[in-house]
């Protein structure tokens, strides 16, 4: 199948999500001089396989991504179509708890929507800590966003197996406790991806997650969103919602965000003291980071 | 002064966010109804670029041990 990057439509939700969490990762990486980044266990987000690290690669970080065999060939197809400035390597790997990477191989190791899928996420965090030189970041699906209980109810109503992980493990408190148990020094926790719409999680509307697919062509063809395209990154809506998100009170961000995260360091240096009560120091001004 | 203005703006964002949330929820409901009518009445189908699948493809091999 031939794919052009301009044809890949994530919808505004998928685009904003990728921009929002990439901004957090980029800021953390910049603050701690991280250049090499590993996404351990890429997931299928916003209808795209293995594309979570695309903005990090676009901004020049050296990115390595491990992808499950199920998604590997399609992930390769999408990444080939992009023209990112950083080095990127996509590796087929099915076990997040045991990898062939050497100790301290990457500056920063992260993943998105993986932590809560493990009954005991400690082995995952331990492996992330082993291969990370400086920082470990986990992002989970927030249970506080109104879309979460609605999606849970939909699963119940349709008799579908709940495949979004353990509730307890979606919480910041669990992430912090696990990081502490793994011997990491918690640096920052918070919410991210807080646009003014509910998280539809992976709810499909007529078999599609891009909800304008059933609108007339003159609407559908104008409503194409892809986080890797500068036109989408600089769209006034993305800029406005990011401005709201970075300026809203931390309690409101945690309440409305689609994702929660905890970032920890292997060692606390003098210039990286944790804040109390571990709230994000600052957010990048530009929606796409531009570091 | 700057800190005070920033603090005021941070709380000014909340009603804006709630109002926008209300509008986008209405839009989602409208799009859902539109998709339902297109499928059920006009028998339209849609083929996504990538086949929908669960977000997380990995297995938790230690799940039984805890």
Name the helicity range of chain A.
Answer: 25-40%
Series of secondary-structure elements of chain A, N-terminal to C-terminal: HEEEHEHEEHEHHEHHHHE
- Named CATH architecture of chain A: 3-Layer(aba) Sandwich
Characterize the largest beta sheet of chain B: strand count, sense, and whether it forms a barrel: none
Please count the beta strands of chain A (DSSP E, at least 2 residues each).
Answer: 9
Q: Report the C-alpha radius of gyration of chain B, rounded.
A: 22 Å
Indicate the multimeric state.
Answer: heterodimer
Question: Which secondary structure elements does this structure contain, and how are they paired or packed?
Answer:
The complex is a heterodimer of chains A (291) and B (66).
Chain A: H1 11-31, E1 36-39, E2 44-45, E3 48-49, H2 54-58, E4 62-67, H3 69-80, E5 88-92, E6 106-112, H4 122-131, E7 132-141, H5 147-158, H6 172-181, E8 185-192, H7 217-220, H8 230-233, H9 236-247, H10 250-256, E9 259-265
Parallel strand pairs in A: 1-4, 1-6, 4-5, 6-7
Antiparallel strand pairs in A: 2-3, 7-9, 8-9
Chain B: H1 2-40
